[in-house]
Amino acid sequence: MVEHDSLPLDTIFHALGDATRRAMLGELAAAPRSVGELAEPFAMSLAAASKHIKVLEKAGLVRREVRGRTHMCSLDPAPLMTADQWLGVYRRFWTGRLDTLEQLLRAEDAPRPPRAVFDQSGSS
C-alpha cells in the first residue's frame, strides 16, 4: 500500500473539496491566469478569490508570481500525482472487484450444455 504523510494529502483533498477551487485549477490547467481572471467567472471579489488561491497554494497546487501589481497564478500538478498515487490503491481494488463481477456475469450468461433427459423407466 502506498504510504504518505497524511498532512499533505489532507491539505490537497481539502483544497480539492471546493467546487470553486476545482474550477480554478481547471482554468490553470489550460494556462496561467491572473487573480482577476480566476475571480471573474464566479463574480467574486479579488479578496475572496485570493483566499481560495491561498488554500490552493498551501496545498502546493498553485504557484503565484507577482508581476508589478498583477498576481499571476500557475498550476503545479505534482501534488495531484501524490493524490493519484493514494487513490490508485483503491482504483486497483475496485478494478479487481469489477473484473471478478464481469467474469461471474459472463459465466452466468454463457450457454449451458443440454442436460441428459432420463425417462421414468430409468433408461436414457
Automatic annotation (TrEMBL):
CDD domains for this protein: HTH_ARSR
GO MF annotations in UniProt: DNA-binding transcription factor activity
Annotated InterPro entries: ArsR-like_HTH, HTH_ArsR_DNA-bd_dom, WH-like_DNA-bd_sf, WH_DNA-bd_sf
Gene3D superfamilies, per database record: Winged helix-like DNA-binding domain superfamily/Winged helix DNA-binding domain
Pfam families attached to this UniProt entry: HTH_20
SUPFAM superfamilies in UniProt: Winged helix' DNA-binding domain
Name of the protein in its database record: Transcriptional regulator, ArsR family
Organism (species): Sphingopyxis indica
